[in-house]
Structures are given as C-alpha cells and as structure tokens.
Design brief:
By secondary structure, the protein is of the alpha+beta class. It is 58% helix and 16% strand. It has one domain: Arc Repressor Mutant, subunit A.
C-alpha cells in the first residue's frame, strides 16, 4: 500500500466515518491538482483491493478490511 492510499484511509479515521464523499477524500491530496489525481487513483486502487466500496454519487465506504487498515495507519 502506498502513502497516498494510507492517507485516504487516514481521512476515514480522522473524520470518524465509515462513508465519505470524494470531496472529503481530496483532503488527503490538498489543493494540488496532481495530488488530487493521485487521490482518485488511490481510491480506485483501494476499491480494487477491497478496502473501499463504491456507494454511488462519489461516496465511498470502508469495507471490513478497510476498517481494520484505517485503524493501523
């Protein structure tokens, strides 16, 4: 897992939420457009690896695997 993926999971932990929208997850990348693209790529990879699940309308939720990982970052 790369640093950007860890930062995305950390946002869930910091906000004490199991579901967040993409705009909240952009906090992991700040205002830099390249960093925001990296967040999008990281979210997609977290979905592929089973840490997050898509909920529609740009919302993503932690899976059980994601909950465990977010507590360790």
């Amino acid at each position: 897992m790369n640093e950007s993926m860890r930062q995305v999971l950390k946002i869930f932990s910091e906000m004490k939420s199991d579901a967040l929208d993409l705009h909240a997850l952009f906090e992991a990348g700040g205002n830099d457009p390249a960093a925001r693209r990296q967040v999008i790529d990281s979210v997609a990879e977290l979905v592929r690896e089973g840490y997050l699940e898509e909920r529609g309308s740009d919302f993503y939720a932690l899976t059980e695997k994601g909950r465990k990982a977010s507590k360790q970052v």
